[in-house]
Design brief:
This protein is an alpha+beta fold. Helices cover 14% and strands 33% of the residues. Strands 1, 2, 3, 4, 5, 6 and 7 form a seven-stranded mixed β-sheet that branches. Strands 11, 12, 13, 14, 15 and 16 form a six-stranded mixed β-sheet that branches. The chain has a three-stranded antiparallel β-sheet with strand order 8-9-10, with no helix packed on it. A hairpin with a 6-residue loop joins β8 and β9. The structure holds zinc ion. The site of zinc ion (ZN) has 8 residues, from loops.
């Protein structure tokens, strides 16, 4: 295995290959027509042609003000603009509304990844029109998605919140937990947000200990995935059991258990998540399993 190994999953920009080129919203492309990535509530609005979902091209549909669209990059050499419609906006003629989530079976990896980038940029733009320090108007830096306050000059950039996600192994066994809101029988890796002043390794150790009472050692980084719900990056680790008795002591998990590849949980996280990617490779032994 080459290291670091790019995790070939949706939401990571690598799966767009050369088709997408990011651009700052002030890039001059005049009125050149292009592709549209429209979001309504938690749905992508796409064209449904011959059972395939496609990015619309050309003028925005009725009800979408072209001046509210943001340039997010180029797609197949043409401008790609994005915009958000009200959740109650009527569906434009000839459009299909597809729920935007990692479990979608109709959104291919490229549409999921473009949708994730659009979602993060639209939220950043919408929620940061004014400076959090003085309330002054904020505008984009030239050539960047960052923003500057027109009054006090403070500069800010789109945030990404780091999380550690950890597979713990003990011989043939591996440790998974479940949240009460998940579908029945679903178990996944232990994960949590980086705390103030922590390294990712410290975060991984703390989350496993807090959520399960288990201490870990031999921690290895194995890859990461952008996770635009709303704006995380999931840093994946594999670790070995070092000690402790399994106990679910905090409010995060409903249950945690040791499983084996011969007796896995009834349901695992979706195949498009780094959680499943790690479980498949390092717990179920489908690929590399030799850290
Ligand atoms: Zn300010």
């Amino acid at each position: 295995m080459s290291y670091p190994d790019t995790v070939n999953l949706p939401f990571n920009r690598a799966c767009l290959r050369d088709s997408f080129r990011p651009l700052s919203p002030d890039t001059v492309v005049t009125d050149e027509p292009g592709f549209l990535l429209l979001i309504r509530g938690e749905e992508l609005l796409l064209l449904d042609e011959d059972e395939s979902l496609l990015l619309p091209y050309g003028s925005p549909p009725q009800g979408v003000d072209p001046d509210t669209l943001l340039l997010m990059g180029s797609w197949e050499g043409r401008p790609l603009r994005t915009g958000r419609l009200s959740p109650s906006a009527p569906l434009p003629a000839q459009y299909a509304a597809e729920p935007f989530n990692a479990y979608s079976t109709r959104l291919d990896d490229r549409l999921l990844t473009l949708g994730g980038i659009a979602r993060i940029l639209l939220a950043w733009n919408h929620e940061n029109s004014h400076c959090p320090r003085c309330g002054g108007e904020s505008r984009h830096h030239p050539g960047s998605w960052g923003k500057s306050c027109m009054v006090c000059g403070v500069q800010r950039f789109p945030p990404t919140h780091p999380c550690a996600i950890v597979l713990v192994r003990r011989g043939e066994e591996f440790l998974l937990g479940r949240k009460a809101v998940w579908p029945q029988g679903r178990y996944s890796l232990i994960a949590g947000f980086l705390d103030v002043g922590e390294s990712l390794e410290e975060c991984a150790q703390r989350e496993v200990l807090e959520e399960t009472g288990i201490r870990i050692t031999n921690l290895h980084y194995v890859g990461s995935q952008c996770w635009p719900f709303p704006s995380q990056v999931m840093a994946g680790f594999v670790a070995d059991y070092a000690g402790g008795e399994l106990s679910v002591a905090d409010d995060e998990l409903e249950d945690a258990r040791w499983f084996t590849s011969h007796s896995p949980p009834l349901s695992l996280p979706g195949r498009r998540s780094i959680a499943r990617w790690i479980i498949d490779r390092y717990a179920l032994g489908n690929l590399h399993n030799n850290l």
